[in-house]
Every structure is written in structure tokens, then in C-alpha cells.
Amino acid sequence: MGASALDRNGLRSYSLWSLSWPIFIELFLATLLGTVDTLMVSRVSDDAVAVVGLSNQLFNGLNTLFMTITGGAGILVAQKLGSRNPEDARTIGIIAAKVTGCIGLGISALLFLLPDQIARLIQTPEELLPLAHTYISTAGCALAPFALSAAFSTVIRNTGNTRGPMLTAVVINLLHVLFNYGFIFGAFGFPKLGLHGVAISTLSCRIIMMLILAYMFVGAFERKVGIADIRLRDRKLFKEVLRIGWPLGVNSSCWMLSQMIIFVFLATLGAKELATRTYMNTLESFCFMLGFAIAMAVQIQIAHHFGAKKWQEAYRGAYKALYIGLAVVTVNAGLLALLGKWFLGFFTDDPDIIHMGVSLLALNMLLQPGKMMNMGFNSGLNAVGDTRFPMTTSLFSMWIVAVGLSYYFGLHLGWGLVAIYCCMIADEYVRGFLAFLRWRQRKVLKREEHAEWLRLMPAAAQSHGSSHAGAAAASAPKPARPLNV
User: Fold this and answer.
1) Burial level of 2, CB count in 10 A (0-12/13-18/19+)?
2) Where are the transmembrane segments (predicted)?
3) Contacts of 15 by beta carbon, 8 Å cutoff, 6+ apart
4) CA 369 to chain centre
5) Residue in 56, 43, 32, 44 with CA at minimum distance from that of residue 196
6) How far apart are CA 196 and CA 302, in angstroms?
């Protein structure tokens, strides 16, 4: 099936499948290559793995700053294209790229100039500081091109072109493996540079990715983006981006911080519990990846419908994604539970870790439907601009249910890893159920539909009053009152 088609109104129409499968492949490759990357770095030394892992936690945290801009911009681009306003969509995309690029340059400069201070700030052990200096100062410079890449890919994806970023990810991930192999082992004529080579590989691949996506970004809209557009400004549109985007940034930061704290709880329980949860993270990510791709795709689809004032299609889209996603993640979780012992054997031969892992994989069958409900309905809320509600529920549920109850049951009462995992399951269902109730109320959809009805009323009344007789009066447009949906 083609990536796009034209509907009867002349708007681009994207199926959930055509949007989601490229996103899935992109996510799958990122997860798979991340695992391969860690295995390759382990050939340098265990200390190198520790430095890369610790530094990546820092980089991932800083990436949430870009989410504030790119997340809001992506949603608005889809809405503006849906409302047949490609110039506003183009302006938003350009502004997002400029702002995230500036933020990325600032952060990269700090990481390059102050690597030792930053390494100590994130509690890097003293013996790892020389390696941390090398890695943070070099790989940290990659945040600038990564920021621009995040802006380009988000905007491109929300125009409906999910294949472009996917194909770019395929090329870059393969290059990253080749560069890592060359720099670590001195192959293909590369100098053998160890961890410094891995950092150079990361920086090089991020720059190449930025250039490829920049080329796609130039032609992403009806009117090509040019150098002169760097001066483009629109304070009103930028305020819209921030209005939608800052809750997304807070939500992402909240999730990352809560997960880090839960990992501290697990470390308190012991090394085996921490290792079990680490292996589970990897297995779970493969389990819900297609569901996450569906949630990302439906966000694009609903935002297009919302911009096009197709209220019913927007509302039903979240349910359609939920039904498909539930079927997918349930099957995946069932297969993982059946084959879990075999999969865990790839990571460890410790019988205690395998036993705990198999128990968690059984509970994972409860987790995945809740996670899908959470992702599906919150994606719908984000798509219509109702981003503050997911942020508010996350602040409540993540800190009270996930973190608070994990501490109480897991550490205070001593019920351990299974109790902590159950609290994480409860958090997903609480957020998912609250998002379902909010979506079912159709608060934003009703408000926008009513505003559109009020906007059309004067025009309809004027058209009706200007012709007292004849076919003109009979054919005057009369807007229907909004349905009580």
C-alpha cells in the first residue's frame, strides 16, 4: 500500500499501517543496535561500558530539552497540514529546527568545555574520570547535530513521511556499527582508538544523519525551505509550540527521573535484582515496540484529523489504535512468557536471576495491555493539544504510585522486586484509565466543534438574510449544531 493518498477533500490520507511500520523498524533498529553497541564497547573494557552507560543517562536526560520544542512542533505541523495551512506548518518546522539547534549548540559547548566538572556532577567514580573526560567531551559534541536531527525527523514524520527517517536510521545504524568496529579493532584502515574512537564514531554518524535529514527537510513542504528562511520568525506560532510542548518535556523528564529512582531502589535490594530488571528492560522493549509505533502513528493521524476538523475520525482513531495495539502486545507478551527462560539464557546462566526474570515475564502479560492503553489514549490527547492532562496525571501517578508505593512495598515492607514491578504495572493502568476517561469526555473535541459552529453561524445567518426568496435562500449553507458527543 502506498504511503499516502488523497481523500475526497484533497487532503493527504495516511493509513495507520503505512505510518506505523516505518516507525516500528526505526525503533527496532535503534534498540537492536543499542544492544550491539554495548556489546562492542565491552570489548574495550568493563570500565568503558560503565562510562558509556553513565554518560548516556546524562545525554538522554538532556534530550528531554529538545522534546519540549520538537514534540510540540510535530503535533502542530500535523494539525496545520490537516487544516490545509501548509505555510504555517512550514514556519513551525523552521522555527523548531532553529531553536533546537541553538539549544543543542549550547549544551554541546558546555560538555566540550567542562567534561570533568560534569563527570563529577553525575557521580562518576574517580578511577573512571579520565575515560569520562574523553567520552563526554567528544560524544557530547554530537548533541548539537542530534538536536537538529530530532527536529528534522519529527517534522518530516508528522508530514506523513515516516519512511524517510526510517531509511535514514537504517543507514546510520549500519555506519555506526562499521565505524565502531573500525575504531575499536583498528579495522578497515581506521586507527585503533578504543573508547575515544567510539565517541568519534557517535559524533560522525550524528553529523551524517543530520545532513541526510536536512536534505529531506528542505523538500518536506509544498514550498522548499531555503537559507533565507533562517531569519523567519513568528512569535504567535512559537508560543503555540511551547504551549503544547512544555508539558511533553516535563512528562518525559518525570518518567526518566522516576525510572532512575526505581533503579536506585533495585540497587538497594541487591545486584541480582538490579540485573534482572535490566534484562527485563531489554526484553520488554522488544515486546511493546510495535504497540509504541502504533501509538506514535495514531498521534500523527489524529492530529491531521483534528486540524481538518474531522472530529469523529479523530475520536475513533484512538480506539482503533488501542484495539490493534492490545492484540499485538498481548500476543508478544504471551510469546515472551512462554519463551522467557530461553531468552534470559542469552544474558545469564544465574538460576536466581532466571527464576526472578520468569516471574516478571508472567507479570509482563498484565503490564503490556495497561501500557498500550496508556500510550494509545495519551497519544490521542497529545494530538489534539491536551498535553497538560497527561503531564498532571504523570506527576501524580509516577511519583505516588510507581515511586512511592515501590518504596513502601518493595523496600519498607521488604516485599522486593515483584512488589516494585506490580507498582509499575499499577502506574500504567492508573495513567491509562485516567487518559481513557479524559478521551471519552471529548473535552477538547467538543470545545473545538462548538467554536467552529459559532464561527459559522454569523456567515450562515448573513447568507440566509440577504436572499428572502428563491433558490439562493434555499441553498444557503446552514451549519448543523454540534452533536452532543
Assistant:
1) exposed
2) 21-41, 61-79, 91-114, 134-155, 167-190, 196-221, 241-267, 279-300, 321-347, 353-370, 391-409, 415-437
3) 1
4) 19
5) 44
6) 44
Q: Kindly write down the DSSP assignment for every residue of 47-114, as one continuous string.
A: HHHHHHHHHHHHHHHHHHHHHHHHHHHHHHHHHHHHTT-HHHHHHHHHHHHHHHHHHHHHHHHHHHH-
Cell 491531521 belongs to: 304
Beta bridge partners of 146: none
Tens-place pLDDT, residues 55-98: 877 888 788 888 889 999 999 999 999 999 999 999 999 999 99
What span, in angstroms and rounded, lies between the C-alpha atoms of 303 and 310? Answer: 10
Reading the block at residue 288, the C-alpha cell is 511493546
Instruction: State the cell numbers at 25.
Output: 523498524
> Distance between CA 87 and CA 78 in Å, rounded?
12
Question: Would you state the cell numbers that stand for residue 187, as one nine-digit string?
Answer: 579495522
Residues 227 and 78 in one domain: yes
Residue 387 is given by DSSP the state: -
Quote the domain boundaries for residue 438: 244-459
**Are 434 and 427 in contact, with CB atoms under 8 Å apart?**
no
Q: For residues 321 and 303, what is the distance between their CA atoms, to the nearest angstrom? A: 14
Q: What is the DSSP string of 239-269?
A: HHHHHHHHHHHHHHHHHHHHHHHHHHHHHHH
69 and 167 part of one domain: yes
Q: Is residue 6 part of a domain?
A: no
User: What are the two backbone dihedrals, phi and then psi, of residue 202, each rounded to the nearest 5 degrees?
Assistant: -60, -45
Average pLDDT (350-354) is 86
User: Does residue 283 share a domain with residue 422?
Assistant: yes
Q: What is the pLDDT of residue 434?
A: 97
Q: Which helix (H) or strand (E) holds 210?
A: helix 195-218
Contacts of residue 68, defined as CB under 8 A and 6 or more positions apart, other chains included, come to 242, 245, 246, 248, 249
Amino acid, single-letter form, for residue 378? N
The tally of domains found in the chain comes to 2
Tens of pLDDT along 396-426? 999 999 999 999 999 999 998 999 999 999 9
- pTM given for the model: 0.83
Q: What is the pLDDT of residues 206-215, one digit of tens each?
A: 999 999 999 9
Same domain, 377 and 256: yes
